[in-house]
Design the sequence.
Protein backbone atom coordinates (compact mmCIF):
# COMPACT_ATOMS: atom_id res chain seq x y z
CA UNK A 1 0.00 0.00 0.00
CA UNK A 2 1.13 3.55 -0.70
CA UNK A 3 1.65 6.46 1.67
CA UNK A 4 -1.09 8.86 2.74
CA UNK A 5 -0.36 12.55 2.32
CA UNK A 6 -2.42 15.72 2.71
CA UNK A 7 -1.45 19.35 3.33
CA UNK A 8 -1.38 20.88 6.81
CA UNK A 9 -2.36 24.41 5.78
CA UNK A 10 -5.73 24.06 7.52
CA UNK A 11 -6.82 21.87 10.44
CA UNK A 12 -8.30 18.51 9.56
CA UNK A 13 -12.11 18.55 9.39
CA UNK A 14 -13.30 16.06 12.01
CA UNK A 15 -16.58 14.24 11.35
CA UNK A 16 -17.14 11.39 13.82
CA UNK A 17 -15.17 8.78 15.78
CA UNK A 18 -15.80 5.70 17.90
CA UNK A 19 -14.57 2.47 19.43
CA UNK A 20 -15.99 -0.67 17.87
CA UNK A 21 -16.02 -3.77 20.05
CA UNK A 22 -17.14 -7.17 18.78
CA UNK A 23 -17.06 -10.42 20.77
CA UNK A 24 -16.82 -12.74 17.77
CA UNK A 25 -17.36 -12.95 14.03
CA UNK A 26 -17.15 -9.32 12.90
CA UNK A 27 -17.15 -8.67 9.14
CA UNK A 28 -16.93 -5.10 7.83
CA UNK A 29 -19.65 -4.30 5.30
CA UNK A 30 -18.82 -3.09 1.78
CA UNK A 31 -18.77 0.66 1.24
CA UNK A 32 -17.06 3.65 -0.32
CA UNK A 33 -17.08 6.97 1.56
CA UNK A 34 -16.40 10.59 0.76
CA UNK A 35 -14.33 10.79 3.95
CA UNK A 36 -10.95 9.40 4.99
CA UNK A 37 -11.06 6.73 7.72
CA UNK A 38 -8.28 5.98 10.22
CA UNK A 39 -8.53 2.69 12.12
CA UNK A 40 -6.27 1.61 15.02
CA UNK A 41 -6.73 -2.00 16.12
CA UNK A 42 -6.45 -2.46 19.89
CA UNK A 43 -7.25 -6.15 20.16
CA UNK A 44 -7.78 -9.00 17.71
CA UNK A 45 -7.32 -9.05 13.94
CA UNK A 46 -9.26 -7.25 11.22
CA UNK A 47 -9.49 -8.53 7.65
CA UNK A 48 -10.16 -5.85 5.03
CA UNK A 49 -10.20 -5.76 1.25
CA UNK A 50 -9.09 -2.30 0.15
CA UNK A 51 -9.13 -1.40 -3.52
CA UNK A 52 -9.24 -5.11 -4.38
CA UNK A 53 -6.26 -5.98 -2.15
CA UNK A 54 -6.69 -8.25 0.90
CA UNK A 55 -5.15 -6.66 4.00
CA UNK A 56 -4.70 -8.00 7.55
CA UNK A 57 -4.59 -5.44 10.37
CA UNK A 58 -3.48 -6.87 13.70
CA UNK A 59 -3.45 -5.55 17.26
CA UNK A 60 -1.09 -2.59 17.52
CA UNK A 61 -1.43 -1.73 13.84
CA UNK A 62 -3.38 0.96 11.97
CA UNK A 63 -4.80 1.41 8.48
CA UNK A 64 -5.83 4.56 6.59
CA UNK A 65 -8.69 4.18 4.12
CA UNK A 66 -8.73 6.95 1.52
CA UNK A 67 -11.90 8.82 0.65
CA UNK A 68 -13.57 7.25 -2.38
CA UNK A 69 -11.74 3.94 -2.04
CA UNK A 70 -14.00 0.92 -1.77
CA UNK A 71 -13.36 -1.33 1.23
CA UNK A 72 -15.03 -4.34 2.84
CA UNK A 73 -14.25 -7.29 5.08
CA UNK A 74 -13.02 -10.44 3.36
CA UNK A 75 -12.92 -12.73 6.39
CA UNK A 76 -14.72 -12.89 9.73
CA UNK A 77 -12.70 -11.85 12.76
CA UNK A 78 -12.05 -14.59 15.30
CA UNK A 79 -12.48 -13.94 19.00
CA UNK A 80 -12.64 -10.46 20.45
CA UNK A 81 -12.01 -7.45 18.19
CA UNK A 82 -11.66 -3.84 19.33
CA UNK A 83 -10.55 -0.85 17.31
CA UNK A 84 -10.67 2.94 17.30
CA UNK A 85 -11.92 4.71 14.17
CA UNK A 86 -12.28 8.30 13.03
CA UNK A 87 -13.77 9.84 9.87
CA UNK A 88 -12.27 13.10 8.63
CA UNK A 89 -11.72 15.21 5.54
CA UNK A 90 -9.29 17.82 4.28
CA UNK A 91 -10.36 21.45 4.48
CA UNK A 92 -9.76 23.76 1.55
CA UNK A 93 -6.56 25.76 1.99
CA UNK A 94 -6.81 29.48 2.62
CA UNK A 95 -4.14 32.05 1.85
CA UNK A 96 -0.61 31.18 0.69
CA UNK A 97 0.15 27.46 0.75
CA UNK A 98 3.37 26.06 2.13
CA UNK A 99 4.18 23.15 -0.19
CA UNK A 100 6.55 21.58 2.35
CA UNK A 101 4.03 20.90 5.14
CA UNK A 102 2.15 17.60 5.03
CA UNK A 103 0.65 14.90 7.16
CA UNK A 104 2.53 11.97 5.67
CA UNK A 105 2.63 8.31 6.79
CA UNK A 106 2.20 4.80 5.34
CA UNK A 107 -1.42 3.79 4.82
CA UNK A 108 -0.76 0.57 6.76
CA UNK A 109 1.70 0.34 9.62
CA UNK A 110 2.63 -0.89 13.10
CA UNK A 111 2.49 1.64 15.91
CA UNK A 112 5.50 1.97 18.22
CA UNK A 113 5.12 1.06 21.87
CA UNK A 114 4.96 4.68 23.07
CA UNK A 115 1.12 4.67 23.17
CA UNK A 116 1.08 8.33 22.08
CA UNK A 117 -1.26 7.75 19.13
CA UNK A 118 -3.71 5.61 21.12
CA UNK A 119 -3.62 8.11 23.98
CA UNK A 120 -4.56 10.95 21.60
CA UNK A 121 -7.29 8.76 20.13
CA UNK A 122 -8.72 8.23 23.62
CA UNK A 123 -8.68 11.97 24.25
CA UNK A 124 -10.46 12.56 20.92
CA UNK A 125 -13.11 10.01 21.87
CA UNK A 126 -13.54 11.55 25.30
CA UNK A 127 -13.96 15.03 23.83
CA UNK A 128 -16.45 13.75 21.25
CA UNK A 129 -18.67 12.30 24.02
CA UNK A 130 -19.14 15.74 25.54
CA UNK A 131 -19.32 17.49 22.16
CA UNK A 132 -21.23 20.72 21.84
CA UNK A 133 -21.58 22.84 18.73
CA UNK A 134 -19.04 25.43 19.89
CA UNK A 135 -16.46 22.65 20.37
CA UNK A 136 -16.42 21.74 16.68
CA UNK A 137 -13.12 23.49 16.00
CA UNK A 138 -11.58 21.91 19.08
CA UNK A 139 -12.37 18.47 17.64
CA UNK A 140 -10.78 19.53 14.34
CA UNK A 141 -7.58 20.48 16.12
CA UNK A 142 -7.63 17.31 18.25
CA UNK A 143 -7.97 15.20 15.11
CA UNK A 144 -5.18 17.18 13.46
CA UNK A 145 -2.92 16.55 16.47
CA UNK A 146 -3.64 12.83 16.17
CA UNK A 147 -2.54 12.79 12.52
CA UNK A 148 0.48 14.96 13.30
CA UNK A 149 1.58 12.53 16.02
CA UNK A 150 1.10 9.60 13.67
CA UNK A 151 3.27 11.39 11.10
CA UNK A 152 6.00 11.98 13.70
CA UNK A 153 5.82 8.47 15.14
CA UNK A 154 6.09 6.77 11.77
CA UNK A 155 8.91 9.11 10.76
CA UNK A 156 10.79 8.09 13.93
CA UNK A 157 9.99 4.45 13.24
CA UNK A 158 11.48 4.69 9.75
CA UNK A 159 14.74 5.75 11.44
CA UNK A 160 14.38 3.21 14.21
CA UNK A 161 18.00 2.16 14.17
CA UNK A 162 19.06 5.73 14.82
CA UNK A 163 16.36 6.49 17.38
CA UNK A 164 16.56 3.40 19.56
CA UNK A 165 20.28 2.76 19.36
CA UNK A 166 21.85 6.25 19.32
CA UNK A 167 24.80 5.36 21.51
CA UNK A 168 25.66 2.02 20.02
CA UNK A 169 27.36 1.03 16.82
CA UNK A 170 25.11 -1.82 15.66
CA UNK A 171 25.11 -0.82 12.00
CA UNK A 172 28.90 -0.61 11.92
CA UNK A 173 29.44 -3.84 13.85
CA UNK A 174 30.18 -7.18 12.24
CA UNK A 175 27.12 -8.81 10.64
CA UNK A 176 27.09 -11.68 13.16
CA UNK A 177 27.17 -9.19 16.03
CA UNK A 178 24.34 -7.14 14.47
CA UNK A 179 22.27 -10.30 14.13
CA UNK A 180 22.94 -11.45 17.69
CA UNK A 181 21.98 -8.09 19.21
CA UNK A 182 18.81 -7.82 17.17
CA UNK A 183 17.85 -11.41 18.01
CA UNK A 184 18.42 -10.62 21.68
CA UNK A 185 16.20 -7.52 21.49
CA UNK A 186 13.47 -9.46 19.68
CA UNK A 187 13.73 -12.32 22.20
CA UNK A 188 13.43 -9.91 25.14
CA UNK A 189 10.50 -8.06 23.56
CA UNK A 190 8.57 -11.27 22.89
CA UNK A 191 9.31 -12.88 26.26
CA UNK A 192 9.64 -9.98 28.68
CA UNK A 193 6.52 -11.12 30.55
CA UNK A 194 8.32 -14.33 31.57
CA UNK A 195 10.99 -14.81 34.22
CA UNK A 196 14.22 -13.73 32.53
CA UNK A 197 17.66 -12.40 33.36
CA UNK A 198 20.75 -11.39 31.30
CA UNK A 199 22.30 -14.84 31.62
CA UNK A 200 19.20 -16.49 30.12
CA UNK A 201 19.30 -14.12 27.14
CA UNK A 202 22.98 -14.91 26.52
CA UNK A 203 22.38 -18.64 26.86
CA UNK A 204 19.50 -18.45 24.40
CA UNK A 205 21.97 -17.08 21.83
CA UNK A 206 24.78 -19.45 22.90
CA UNK A 207 27.05 -16.69 24.21
CA UNK A 208 29.07 -16.41 27.40
CA UNK A 209 26.86 -14.30 29.75
CA UNK A 210 29.56 -11.79 30.77
CA UNK A 211 30.83 -11.35 27.23
CA UNK A 212 27.35 -10.89 25.77
CA UNK A 213 26.32 -8.44 28.51
CA UNK A 214 29.34 -6.32 27.64
CA UNK A 215 28.64 -6.63 23.91
CA UNK A 216 24.98 -5.68 24.32
CA UNK A 217 25.80 -2.57 26.34
CA UNK A 218 28.50 -1.50 23.90
CA UNK A 219 26.19 -1.83 20.90
CA UNK A 220 22.93 -0.44 22.37
CA UNK A 221 24.05 1.96 25.07
CA UNK A 222 22.02 0.16 27.73
CA UNK A 223 22.34 -2.99 29.81
CA UNK A 224 20.23 -6.07 29.12
CA UNK A 225 18.35 -5.43 32.36
CA UNK A 226 17.60 -1.85 31.35
CA UNK A 227 16.24 -2.96 27.98
CA UNK A 228 14.23 -5.74 29.66
CA UNK A 229 12.69 -3.25 32.09
CA UNK A 230 11.92 -0.87 29.22
CA UNK A 231 9.98 -3.58 27.36
CA UNK A 232 8.18 -4.66 30.53
CA UNK A 233 7.08 -1.09 31.23
CA UNK A 234 5.74 -0.74 27.68
CA UNK A 235 3.79 -3.98 28.12
CA UNK A 236 2.43 -2.83 31.48
CA UNK A 237 1.27 0.44 29.93
CA UNK A 238 -0.62 -1.40 27.21
CA UNK A 239 -2.26 -3.69 29.79
CA UNK A 240 -3.37 -0.80 32.00
CA UNK A 241 -4.68 1.32 29.12
CA UNK A 242 -6.11 -1.24 26.71
CA UNK A 243 -7.12 -4.07 29.07
CA UNK A 244 -7.95 -1.97 32.15
CA UNK A 245 -6.10 -4.35 34.47
CA UNK A 246 -5.10 -3.34 38.00
CA UNK A 247 -1.64 -1.95 38.71
CA UNK A 248 -0.72 -5.12 40.58
CA UNK A 249 -1.89 -7.34 37.74
CA UNK A 250 -0.04 -5.18 35.19
CA UNK A 251 3.15 -5.53 37.22
CA UNK A 252 3.05 -9.31 37.47
CA UNK A 253 1.68 -9.86 33.96
CA UNK A 254 4.52 -7.84 32.45
CA UNK A 255 7.22 -9.86 34.20
CA UNK A 256 7.91 -7.94 37.41
CA UNK A 257 8.06 -10.07 40.55
CA UNK A 258 7.84 -7.16 42.98
CA UNK A 259 5.10 -4.53 42.79
CA UNK A 260 7.14 -1.86 44.61
CA UNK A 261 10.08 -2.39 42.27
CA UNK A 262 7.69 -2.11 39.31
CA UNK A 263 6.34 1.19 40.62
CA UNK A 264 9.86 2.57 41.11
CA UNK A 265 10.99 1.54 37.61
CA UNK A 266 7.74 2.83 36.07
CA UNK A 267 8.17 6.27 37.59
CA UNK A 268 11.80 6.36 36.43
CA UNK A 269 10.73 5.64 32.85
CA UNK A 270 7.50 7.64 32.63
CA UNK A 271 8.00 10.45 35.14
CA UNK A 272 4.76 9.52 36.93
CA UNK A 273 3.39 6.69 39.02
CA UNK A 274 1.42 3.82 37.42
CA UNK A 275 -1.72 5.10 39.16
CA UNK A 276 -1.27 8.60 37.72
CA UNK A 277 -0.70 7.14 34.25
CA UNK A 278 -3.73 4.88 34.47
CA UNK A 279 -5.93 7.69 35.81
CA UNK A 280 -4.82 10.09 33.08
CA UNK A 281 -5.19 7.79 30.10
CA UNK A 282 -7.60 4.94 30.88
CA UNK A 283 -11.21 5.74 30.05
CA UNK A 284 -14.14 3.57 29.17
CA UNK A 285 -15.72 4.23 25.79
CA UNK A 286 -18.89 2.92 24.20
CA UNK A 287 -19.55 2.28 20.52
CA UNK A 288 -20.55 5.30 18.47
Sequence:
Amino acid sequence: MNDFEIRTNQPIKYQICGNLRASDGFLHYKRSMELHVLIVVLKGTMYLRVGGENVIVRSGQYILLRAGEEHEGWKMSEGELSYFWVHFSEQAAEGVENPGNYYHFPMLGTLPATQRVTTLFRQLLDLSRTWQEEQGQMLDYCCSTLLMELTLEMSRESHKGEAIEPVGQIESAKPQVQQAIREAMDYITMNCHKQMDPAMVAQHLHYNPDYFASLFRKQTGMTITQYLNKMRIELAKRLMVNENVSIKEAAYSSGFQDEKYFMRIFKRHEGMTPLAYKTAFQKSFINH
